[in-house]
Amino acid sequence: MSLITTHVLDTSTGTPAAGIQVLLRGPDQRQIATGTTDEDGRIGELGPESLSPGTYELIFATGEHFDARGLEHFFPQVTLAFTVEASAGHYHVPLLLSPFGYTTYRGS
């Protein structure tokens, strides 16, 4: 199982955000993995089973999601930085998205 998973929900429609491209970048800013949200807005396998401690980023191509629906939006992408610790288990990083805002949290 991947150490990192994500889930994107479009709060403007109350539905999963399918087809969003997501990039996982490491502390050295190098790309580690990419994925695309499925019909349930999830990516269950994003990167390896383990990562070294450090600050990582998930970069969501959110603008394309709203462009495809013909909606005006403010954020062409959302970048979420988070810390991976040596003793940590799984990291689930959800994104709640709307055309003019977003929120996130550490999921389970």
TrEMBL record:
Keywords: Hydrolase, Purine metabolism. GO terms for biological process: purine nucleobase metabolic process. InterPro entries: Hydroxyisourate_hydrolase, Thyroxine_BS, Transthyretin/HIU_hydrolase, Transthyretin/HIU_hydrolase_d, Transthyretin/HIU_hydrolase_sf, Transthyretin_CS. It comes from the Bacteria. Residues 4-107 form the Transthyretin/hydroxyisourate hydrolase domain. NCBIfam families: hdxy_isourate. This is 5-hydroxyisourate hydrolase. It comes from Nesterenkonia sandarakina.
